[in-house]
Design brief:
Largest sheet of chain A: 7 strands, parallel
Largest interface: A-B, 57 and 57 residues
Distance between the termini of chain A: 66 Å
Radius of gyration of chain A: 29 Å
CATH class of the largest domain in chain A: Alpha Beta
Order of helices and strands of chain A: EHEHHEHEEHEHEHHHH
Oligomer: homodimer
CATH superfamily of the largest domain in chain A: SPOUT methyltransferase, trefoil knot domain
CATH architecture of the largest domain in chain A: 3-Layer(aba) Sandwich
Strand order of the largest sheet of chain A: 3-2-1-6-4-7-5
Structural class of chain A: alpha/beta
């Protein structure tokens, strides 16, 4: 599911570090499901839970409902009893923490901090705490880096699965974003001549209508020209504008 | 709640466009609550619902639970019957759409498209469709721009409140991100002399232990030096390393 690993060393072009999401003591099954979906839309698949509140959380109804099409992530997810187990095989661990700690790794914003991991890590785990208590000091101290999502200073509490979504998104953007698929069909903009032709046709109609006085033109045509240029009309739209001008002219 | 408007014209430095989030036909109360919370952590407060499935959604238990500390957003939210009403007073409307449309506004990724709004819009509405069906073609055609969150090509379906979270985050980052608050206490890195002193103390101990042969040093000390420099030790950590060296030396 992740992009193919192009080479074995992190400084090779196109190298994609192995990526794992770790939820420590999650309480709400819906959040576990939503986290799985959030990971999957960004192309990540490895989920590990440390001491979830419910041992059967991966197959609970709320979990599966919120995972939507990401049930495959749940099926392959692992449950372990300590953060150390969850971090096995990982080189770099990034904590997400909202409350200050007595001592721990340096804090960075995802957008500035994640790009610095590229080219030097072979694998990275993103570690999230429980909904109510976040990560313990002991958990944070096991991590190399502390990620902090920039939020309102007086209301910085993100829902667990929202935090997973933002980090997954930022990491994917860092690795090289997926292409944006146009959601609306490609259009062909009319050329300069077509715009000028339509304007000339309208100028004639406007004179005929006595809306435009050629002796006192009052910058009407330059204004219409600017409007049309700003709208960057399509070929089809120019046809429509010309059609309206013809219809006005024909009017008995 | 939004940052203060510094001036009335969008090209003034520090101008913050009025920002509204519009949910069209949302079905799940939990999503409405989670969307309110997602907006609030990013400093936005104006929420409008168009034809929600439940008329009393703003005071349903799931909504309030998922809003967590963002009940104030729900209290001030408005319910209207058409998208046109929801867009009243707004200059720019950005649709979020996952499926292709026959015709409609141009598609951009939030990260590249949102910065282009700065300096030219006085107000912007972000428009989200229902969980199951998204926005209708008629809804999308009422918008100036179509935002598409880059996702896995074969699994691009974000949960509604996750989409709200990502757009709110990107718009806040565009407007000027909130500062990142260090989650761990500031530390004082040891100076070069302190590192060199600790290394010299360890060199003596290592020679005494016969771990280091001064005749055949095998680059041991340069390696330890590189390790220490890379770790950027604090003053306290240097004290600890020196303490261990002393303890080794004292050992009978």
């Amino acid at each position: 599911m992740d992009r193919p690993v192009a080479s074995d060393t992190p400084d090779s072009p196109g190298f994609v570090p192995r990526t794992r999401f770790v939820l420590v003591r999650p309480s709400h099954p819906g959040n576990v499901g939503a986290a799985a979906r959030a990971m999957k839309v960004m192309g990540f698949s490895e989920l590990v839970l440390v001491q979830p509140r419910f041992a059967d959380v991966l197959c609970q109804e709320d979990t599966v409902a919120m995972a939507s099409g990401a049930a495959d992530i749940l099926v392959r997810a692992r449950i372990v009893s300590t953060l150390d187990e969850a971090l096995e095989g990982m080189q770099m661990a990034c904590a997400t923490a909202m409350t200050p700690r007595d001592f721990g790794p340096p804090t960075v914003a995802p957008r500035s901090g994640l790009p610095e991991l590229l080219g030097r890590v072979t694998s990275v785990a993103f570690v999230f705490g429980s909904e109510r208590l976040g990560l313990s000091n002991e958990d944070v101290q096991r991590c190399n880096l502390c990620l902090s999502i920039p939020t309102r200073p007086d209301f910085g509490s993100l829902n667990l699965s929202q935090a997973v979504q933002l980090i997954a998104y930022e990491w994917r953007e860092t690795l090289g974003a997926y292409p944006v698929v146009p959601r609306t069909r490609a259009v062909y903009r009319a050329g300069h001549d077509a715009v000028a032709g339509a304007l000339e046709q309208w100028r004639e109609v406007l004179v005929e209508l006595e809306f435009l006085d050629p002796q006192v033109p009052r910058k009407l045509m330059p204004r219409l020209r600017q409007l049309l240029l700003r709208a960057e009309p399509t070929v089809e739209e120019i046809h429509i504008l010309r059609g309206i001008a013809r219809a006005v002219k024909k009017r008995p």
